[in-house]
């Protein structure tokens, strides 16, 4: 009977494991349940989620901030991989975060679905005015604020000063000048311009509209670019794609400085975060520009601006404690915000008063970048621009830029989708 | 009462043991497979943005939206065209490899291993190698270096749509990954064919093509049926190499977009639109079921005399 007994034991353990696997999957929220800690006794427990920042030290920094917060036990969960999808899925369950960051604030469907709470009362009017206006507008819906911007990121055009001088080219001020410059800068080894391996589909959708004096949506939330200037502007992107001056199929994409620093291209539309790498590889041999205006008479130069916003989940068991923590970290603790923006990666603090204090932003291309954010900054997409609208527009850009479809027809098709989406959201 | 319990437990506790052995797996199947499928069908009838417990019933609205959605329709066409091309091509290639390796006079094991090895490689890793080193668009990419020897301009393989070079990249990656596996299946089939058949054919004066046509292929019928079905299922599941080769931070381009990729963006991305996503998934499932049934009819899968 000995063998029978051990087999039964084994099965018991096996069955138990299987039951645990079925019942217990995904119960780890990163939140300290408080059952173990005796010191944390009466303090509420909060789970705070971040995506994985690439820069060394960021994780330790946010853990340090969380630890220093006196009124709650905050546990940081650091999420490599597809953070947006993971967070969106977790918000559907009771095991989601209390406080989390989300790119450009929560999506409109999160707000409409009641998944996030109103944070308007965390800021008084003077503090509100201190944050980058384009970002505040992006995180506000129907006069309610749903996220506090953490740090500002932006995209802009960088160029190799020495290569432009050699080719006798002035930094371009209009899209036509940019096309001409790209042509002159192209040799058999170096391409003139790099706007991503997709020819700008991913990142130039916004700048192409702004540089024509238009926007995704109008002030009163109607479709914003059913306009001849948009047609003209998108046609320029097609011209660029077929001009053989554009770097395509590079091993790294626009968000990485390698193509620029390794001399594959003379100009690149990229992010502010690449500055430390560029400065190291090409010290003082680079300048920055916003995406230029369409032509001498139409439009304005522009740069896309984005920020991770700190948000509170409506499913949190301690909404008030979570809101207090967000206020403490992203509003009151100015030194921590400055540290977060400056010590690890290269970002602009989300508040003007702090941006002025940031030493790294006082001179050179970085100072120009700060100026662009304040003068030419546009939030990447408006809050009512839903993912479905985004897919429709990027499909259209793909067809216009890569396959040479007629921009006017494509814009009409996007307009139909966007209007249906606006109706769904606001109707 | 105790009699009822005894009856339930069965002779030698057979029923009890059956429950203990089978129970956990049935539970797992139920929780991880059947409930999600049923739930997804339920969701497809609701307006389910950012929620899996929706309240707004929309009837067949989601289905109509998906069928009217030109992007979804074109993704279905993409995937039919892709399957119609990749299934026969991989079939012929792996059969050819198997015939060659089977005839090899030396280093048979070596060739068998070499052709089989890619099967062990991850789709994601292979896709990245294809994208970043073989078919990158700059002049030092492998493919462009070869073109350079003939003084042909570098091609941005994955960036241009005229001509659609991206298909070359996708198809070659998939062939490299899959052909070896099906080659092994064919080899096993070939080794089961009795040599006496070939001997008899040789005595009758049959050589070359005729042997292949009248002996090898008919004898491989069972293997071929299995390979075809596996290839078709694999084509349906097209996702990994497409996603890793063509997606970028700006999303996925509107060409070469299989339905799974489209639904992935609609339902699981920032979209979180489970209603439309589920409706699309149900439509796709029905389509696959129809094609599989039709194929079963044509090649006679599961027929008793096989």
Automatic annotation (TrEMBL), chain A:
Which InterPro entries is this protein grouped with?
SBP, TAT_signal
Task: Write down the Gene3D superfamilies for this protein, in alphabetical order.
Answer: Periplasmic binding protein-like II (3.40.190.10)
What keywords would UniProt list here? Signal, Sugar transport, Transport
GO terms in the biological process aspect are: maltodextrin transmembrane transport; maltose transport
A GO MF annotation of the entry reads: maltose binding
List cellular component terms (GO).
Answer: ATP-binding cassette (ABC) transporter complex, substrate-binding subunit-containing
Q: Which Pfam families match?
A: SBP_bac_1
**Family of the protein in this entry:** Belongs to the bacterial solute-binding protein 1 family.
Report what the protein is called.
Answer: Multiple sugar transport system substrate-binding protein
From TrEMBL, chain B:
Domain ABC transmembrane type-1 intervals: 76-295
Q: Which Pfam families match?
A: BPD_transp_1 (PF00528)
Family according to the record: Belongs to the binding-protein-dependent transport system permease family.
Principal localisation: membrane
Q: Which UniProt keywords apply?
A: Cell membrane, Membrane, Sugar transport, Transmembrane, Transmembrane helix, Transport
User: What subcellular compartments does it reside in?
Assistant: Cell membrane
Protein name, entry field: Multiple sugar transport system permease protein
Q: What Gene3D superfamilies does the record tag this protein with?
A: MetI-like
Q: Give membrane topology per the record.
A: Multi-pass membrane protein
Q: Which SUPFAM superfamilies match?
A: MetI-like (SSF161098)
What InterPro entries does its record include? ABC_transporter_permease, MetI-like, MetI-like_sf
Superkingdom assignment: Bacteria
Q: According to its record, what are the GO cellular component terms?
A: plasma membrane
Membrane-spanning segments: 16-39, 76-101, 113-132, 165-188, 220-239, 274-294
PROSITE patterns listed in its UniProt record? ABC_TM1 (PS50928)
Q: Which GO terms describe its biological process?
A: transmembrane transport
